[in-house]
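Consider the following assembly input.
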Amino acid sequence: MLNEKRVLLPLLFIAFIVVVGSFSYNFYWIIFSDGSCETKTRFANDLGGEIHLLDQNNRRVKLSTQQADISLIYFGYSFCPDICPYDLERNAYAKDIMDKLGKKINLVFVTLDPKRDTSERLKEFSEYIHEDLISLTGSEEEIEKIKDLYKVYGKSNKKDLADNTYLLDHSTYTYLTDRNGKVLTFFNRRATPETISEKMLCFL
Amino acid sequence: MIKSNLKAVSFILIFIFIIENSIVTSKKAFAQNEQIKITNPFINVIGKNAKSAAGYMVLENLSGQKITLLEAVSDFGSTMLHTSEEKDGVVSMIHLDQIDIDKGDKVNFIPGGLHITFVGIDRDLGVDSTKDILLKFRNSEKTFTKTVSFAVKAK
């Protein structure tokens, strides 16, 4: 009886440590995710991929050959009246913070509306967002492929495709990727420029 | 003597007429327009020749009854009353037929929430200019309009 207790108590103690330890390890990133570099290896996934599209200067560009090692990518459309301008402005602030710190990132916008977002339109749009914004468009097939790679949603709210005043229901996540377009982490609409820039520093 | 008296009387009559008229006019203006206070109206446009934009403002109902915003009308494109709604990271524009403002209440049109959507814009709105928007309201007695000058901003 005494022997059993002697064995059982340490075993229970070990089990307790294992359970608590494992719980803390697995859920730490959920509880303390904002701004912590601890989470950087926790986002294991196969989201993302190379982006090879037409920029606002009518040149075909690749994400992998851009200046910086990491890219902050937003998917939206230039006809977006309410959401995209503010999300992109937030990302532009994050880019400004990084610039001040002397850290290079690519600020990228990919349209989900290639029908209306031509290079010319994106040029006018980009100038109002940030001078370093890389705005990308392509054929409908190319954009569909990118949407699939990044699991992005974007769909017209009108059934009549001839009506050119349609709006899109669309995802609003901003992705942080490496040079190959692999998604390192992502941000929702409520993330601040400071949170985003802090997180970007973890990957540089 | 009579002449000067006549002058004085007609002066007084004209004075009374002007005062009365201005009181009536201001009362009318208050009755029709000042029941609803509109502050910080602006339109956000992104890029030259943008074909769509969003309008924001704060509406405050100063009257003693509910006021309903029925419509916004512009001369440069179609308008809709919208609210943006986010679900699982996807944002949708929800069309609103009308927006009720209860007595004493304030309704904020803000980015990511209530806004006037402008689509099919037929001209460059020009940042730093202003654009008149006609707002149509209704209370329990009547419908009335108010023309509001919206500042055009970029971002």
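Chain B touches chain A at residues 44, 46-54, 78, 82, 84, 86, 89-93, 111-112, 115, 117-120, 154-155 (CB under 8 Å). Ask yourself how this observation constrains the way the partners meet.
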